[in-house]
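Ticket #4471: structure export looks truncated?
Reporter: QA, pipeline team
Priority: medium

Steps to reproduce: submit the single chain below to the structure queue and open the exported record.
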Amino acid sequence: MSNRIRRFFHSMVPAMALLACTASSLRAQTKELVVYAYDSFVAEWGPGPKVIPLFEKEYNCKVTMVSKGDAGQVLSAAILEKASPKADVILGLDNNLVRKVIQSDVLDSYTPKNLSLVATGLDFDPTHHLIPFDYGFFALIWDSQKLANPPKTLADLTKPEYARKLILMDPRTSTPGLGFLATVVATQGEKWPEFWKALKPSILTVTPGWDAGYGMFTQGEAPLVISYTTSPAYHVENDKTDRYKAIVFPEGLVMQVEGAGIVKGAKHADLAKNFIEFMLTTRFQNELPLTQWMYPVNASVPLPASYKAAPKPAKVLKVDGAALDKALAQWADIASK
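Actual output as written to the record:
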């Protein structure tokens, strides 16, 4: 009996080795796309877990999503790895960062065939280092159960009644933080440092990213926070409450258009191109309104009823890129004094 058992196992060894080699070969053939994104995109409630499996199935690949904090931190990671890139795609860099993106030379230019699906006026980078996938408007969100009278204008924020009632984000690492700075620069021009100094008593804290700042807001730490006009729609949809409201200043709001790009030197550039094409299709775009809480750039995608709580501004502020870059370089020194 023992000899028979030995002969049986000896006959099985070649078959098992063949299976192991086949499995190893299949793993080698499966391409892995590495995508750097910000926290909320990768989170279980974000669009990542919904859209990535669709892409993996269609292209028979594996996608590894890597969270790098906020969008500014995504770009910083790509710059640090420039000599030996680990990502194939970086996602979430916006129209206010495009100058820095091009100057950093970390992305390849690519014009997708599906760019025709993008609504007019949203293709913000003519060099196509960044391709748009969603858009929204930066706005202060007001907790109507914590604050009786919200500010009516940007200038109102400097009034004593709003002392330590405002949560902001660092413009060096956070796109909402940069969006608020852009709002100040667009409305105050060269006098923006004086406005910021007058604003400082109203600021409770400046967090590194949106997640931390908005979390403090919903926990009741302060009744005002910089976010998006669509944030109230989120609370209507998920919390069944309209206590949180977007303040649309008469001066106007800054629009954010978020994009994605292919990393220069990407190991899987062809698969990265497929990802850029895919993100403009309705399969990807349909998931954005109720996960990303931003407007899809593909105009054929319907919006949920909760978006009635998301006001659009009558005026969209235009921000000079060079002036914003200059302000960003000065911000830390001004904010610390």
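Status: closed, not a bug. The export was complete when the record was re-opened. Leaving a note from the reviewer for reference: The longest strand covers residues 131-143.
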